[in-house]
UniProtKB/TrEMBL annotation:
Domain of life: Bacteria
One Gene Ontology cellular component annotation held by this UniProt entry: plasma membrane
Gene3D superfamilies (alphabetical): 1.10.3730.20
Natural source organism: [Actinomadura] parvosata subsp. kistnae
Keywords associated with the record: Cell membrane, Membrane, Transmembrane, Transmembrane helix, Transport
Family: Belongs to the drug/metabolite transporter (DMT) superfamily. Small multidrug resistance (SMR) (TC 2.A.7.1) family.
Pfam families from the UniProt entry: Multi_Drug_Res
GO molecular function: transmembrane transporter activity
Record carries keyword Transferase: no
Protein known as: QacE family quaternary ammonium compound efflux SMR transporter
Entry-linked InterPro entries: EmrE-like, Small_drug/metabolite_transptr, Small_multidrug_res
Length: 106
């Protein structure tokens, strides 16, 4: 169940990051409300995942996969560029997540 909570937390993390850009410095009401709710949802579901997972594993996977999702969706939604350096970083993050998952014994 911890991995399901962590997956939901990652979705909230991506929504939080993308929503933050849409708030225009928290000057727009509805994007700001969305962003704050996504942040709260992400932290709450991460805390549920961390009941079982080690904090180092759970938090690192949450931020790592959340970062990849944010970059990919940022490219799709905000037309940001995905460079070769970003692709290399994705590979490093995914490799690190896989190693952490193996180290956690799951």
């Amino acid at each position: 169940m911890a991995w399901i909570y962590l997956s939901v937390a990652i979705v909230f993390e991506i929504c939080f990051a993308l929503g933050t850009n849409a708030t225009r410095g928290f000057t727009r009401l509805w994007p700001s409300v969305f962003t704050l709710l996504a942040a709260a949802g992400g932290i709450f579901t991460l805390s549920l995942a961390l009941r079982t997972l080690d904090v180092g594993v759970g938090y690192t996977i949450w931020t790592g996969i959340g970062s990849i999702g944010t970059v990919v969706l940022g490219a799709l939604i905000y037309k940001e560029r995905i460079t070769p350096a970003k692709l290399g970083s994705f590979a490093a993050i995914i490799g690190g997540v896989l190693l952490l998952k193996l180290a956690a014994g799951v």
